[in-house]
Task: structure prediction
Amino acid sequence: MSAELPGEMELIEKHEEILGRRAELLEQMEGRREQLKIERKQQLERSKAARHRNTTLLQALQEIEDHLRGNGQPQPYLLALETRYWASVEESIPAWEHFLLGKGPHPTDGPAEPPRRASTAKDQGRPPRPKPRTAR
Result:
């Protein structure tokens, strides 16, 4: 019977060791679970704040769009500008078509400009140089 006793004692010690380790792991799991609960709660609060912020931004953008649209009638000077723009586009279409079909030069390549004259002091905003004096 004494031979079985040391083996049983070892098993009992291992069993207690396993139970202790299990208790530690359960504590760690419980701590981690609580930590995850807190993180989820914080994430939910951040998500709600972001959603509120996005809603506020969308409303502000909508107000800006409404303000820019005004009463639905564009300003007369904008209409005139748009009309001139589209007239210019329609006027330049033939030149671009010619270029895009490979039948002509690039529309912005104009005739060669004459070389400019050398700049003078007047052009640069400086006083003129004094004329050299001749000896008498």
